[in-house]
Design goal:
Layout: H1 2-16, H2 21-46, H3 55-84, H4 91-119, H5 129-151, E1 156-157, E2 160-161, H6 168-189, E3 198-201, H7 209-217, E4 227-231, H8 236-245, E5 249-252, H9 257-274
Parallel strand pairs: 3-4, 4-5
Antiparallel strand pairs: 1-2
Helix pairs in contact: 1-2, 2-3, 3-4, 4-6, 5-6, 7-8
Length: about 280
């Protein structure tokens, strides 16, 4: 029944992204398989409702919900994508992208949902005022450190910010003082600020830009970000597929570098200064 209750929301999100009906049904089946694999294994080995109050139960969650369920269901998901012909990536590229994204989602979202559902809101009435003050200090500190580490222009090691580990003390603070729920909530709050728009090259070396576009537009957090696709080809098929997947503008890259810089400047002026974006 829970899976059927989620079906209308699944269809609405995917239709909004221009996904065909066959692919929507296949994705719902693979996502349902992931949920069933995780639920059945957890109920079998945790002996009841999943809680994060012991190392054994946390290990069961990591083994089955975070690892086994996403990995196993991604084989089915990638097969469906290739069968329907949705996208141009290879089977293993699709499997890898889907596995990593679902592992991250399971690791950050599921603990927050389960702990909130199990505890309810009544426990908030019994929390001392000093705990609220501590939680507020933790949240403010984590947001400030996250901004400095990921958003501000600081020292970098290659393409990785040198301060990437700066939030770690705050995450340890959250884990020790607020438990698994506090840690998962803190992980969610370390996200980087969303970009004003995304310039996406269709001809990427290892993965199709159209597949990246589909992944971005199917994510509830990122689908409102304007995406401008860049390509060296004015192929009608690519143009149609890009707009079907939800791109906001399709731009053919000039061969001359000076003209390319001019086009990039015009794109930036429009989307950053003239366009009225969602807040």
């Amino acid at each position: 029944m829970l899976l059927l209750a989620a079906f209308p929301a699944h269809v609405a999100v995917e239709l909004n992204s221009g996904v065909p009906i066959a692919m929507i049904l296949c994705w719902f089946l693979s996502n349902s398989c992931e949920g069933l694999i995780g639920a059945i294994c957890i109920r079998r080995y945790s002996k009841g409702v999943l809680r994060f109050d012991s190392l054994q139960r946390v290990g069961v969650f990591l083994a089955f919900a975070v690892f086994l369920a996403p990995v196993a269901s991604s084989f089915l998901d990638a097969g469906f994508v290739r069968l329907v012909g949705w996208g141009t990536d290879s089977y293993w590229q699709i499997w890898l992208m889907r596995t990593f994204s679902n592992v991250l989602a399971a690791l950050t979202l599921i603990p927050v949902i389960l702990i909130s559902a199990g505890s309810g809101l009544n426990f908030l009435r019994r929390v001392p005022t000093r705990r609220y003050a501590e939680a507020g200090a933790l949240a403010i500190g984590l947001m400030m450190v996250g901004f400095v580490a990921f958003a501000a222009k600081g020292p970098k090691l290659g393409n990785v910010p040198a301060l990437v580990y700066a939030p770690l003390p705050f995450l340890l603070w959250a884990a020790m003082r607020f438990g698994p729920g506090g840690l998962s909530t803190s992980l969610l709050s370390t996200d980087e600020p969303l970009p004003v728009f995304i310039l996406l090259d269709i001809s990427l070396p290892k993965v199709s830009g159209l597949e990246v576009l589909r992944a971005i537009k199917s994510h509830p957090k990122f689908y409102t970000i304007p995406i401008i696709t860049l390509t060296g080809s004015a192929d009608d098929i690519n143009i149609q597929e890009a707009y079907t997947l939800g791109c906001n503008s399709y731009t053919v890259k000039p061969v001359d570098f000076e003209k390319f810089l001019e086009v990039a400047s015009q794109i930036g002026i429009y989307w950053c200064a003239l366009n009225a974006s969602m807040k």
